[in-house]
Prior knowledge:
The protein is α+β, with helices and mostly antiparallel strands. The protein has helices at 12-56, 62-75; strands at residues 79-88, 92-101, 111-118. Strands 1-2-3 form a three-stranded antiparallel β-sheet, with helices on one face. The radius of gyration is 27 Å and the shape is rod-shaped.
Amino acid sequence: MIKSKRFKESGAVSIEYALIFPSLLIIVLLLVQSILWLFADRTAQAAAEHGSDAAAAYQARLSDGKNAAEDALDKLPGLKRSTINAFTDGDSVTVVVEGEPVSILPLGLKIKAESTSAIERFYEVGDRQ
Length: 129
C-alpha cells in the first residue's frame, strides 16, 4: 500500500481567522464610527434649531439663541469641542454649531450644522407691506 503525500491542513483555520478577523474588525469599527457621526450630526442640528428658534422669538437677542443652543448641547451628548455662532441680517437669525463627534477611530471628522429662522415681529393693522 502506497501512502499519498498530502498536505497537512492542521492550522489552516487559524490562518484564515488571522486574515479575516482584522478586516471584519475594521468594518465593525467603521460602522460604529458612522453611527456616532450621524448621532453627533443630529445633535448639532437640534442644537442649531433650538438656538435659532430662541433667537428669533419676539424681542429676543442673539445671546438668547446661543444660550439655548448651549443648553441643548449640554442635554444631548455626542458632540465635543463645539462652538456656537449666531448672526442676523435684520430679517432672520442664523445659528451655526460646529464640533467633533465622539471618535473611536482617528479620522478627524468635523460636524457643522446651521439653522435659520425668521425674526418674529408684530405689525399694526395696515403697517405690513
